[in-house]
What we know:
Helix content is 51%, strand content 11%. It is α/β, with parallel strands linked by helices. Its EC number is 4.2.1.20. One of its GO terms (cellular component) is cytosol.
Amino acid sequence: PFSDPxxxxxxxxxxxxxALKHQVSLRDVMEMTREFRRQDAITPLVYMGYMNPxxxxxxxxxxxxxxxAGVDGLLTVDMPPEESEDLRQALKPHDIDxxxxxxxxxxxxxxxxxxxxxxGFLYYVSLKGVTGSNVLDxxxxxxxxxxxxxxxxxxxxxGFGIKTAEDAAAVAKVADAVVVGxxxxxxxxxxxxxxxxxxxxIGDLLAGMRTAMDS
Length: 215
C-alpha cells in the first residue's frame, strides 16, 4: 500500500486508502505472503507497487525478507531502469526478478534497455492511462507485443483495461500472460464485509477467464 499510487485508477487508489487506514504495511504483506506459501509453494508471486515502501525498508532488507517470505518478482512502477542498478543488485542474489513496464509510446531502443535491465517477464501497459481504464484495443496491443518480441526473448505480460473473459481471451492470443487487477479489487470493494462472497465472485471471474483463454 502507498499513499500516492499515481499509476492507478480510482479502484486501486481507494484500496490503498483502505489498507493505509488499517495500517497495513509492506511487512504485513510479507506476512500474508508467508501464510500463502505455507499452502502453495509453486505459484509464482510478484509484488507490484511503488518504490517508497521498498526504499523505507531498504533494498537489502527487502530482498532478504522478500526471498524468505517467498517473493519471486518485484515490479515498481515508478522506478526507471536507468536508476535501478542498486535495487537490481540487491535482488539478484535472492533470485527476485526486477520487472519493468513498457508503454504504447516506448521506442525500440528504450525497449532494449528495459529488457536488458529486467528479468522474469516484461509488463506491457495496454493503453495510455491508469489501471482500470475502459478502452482495450487488442489489435494495437498485438502490434506492440510483436514489436517488443523482436528485441527481447523475455515473456510479455499485458495488463490495464482487462475486465472480462472476452478481454482475457483476446489478449491471451497475442501475449504470454494476462494481468488482471482492478476488476478483482472492485469485487473486494463491493463485498468488503463478506469474505465468502469475495472468494466466490473472484473465483467465478477467474474461472471464466481461464475457460475463455483455453478455448
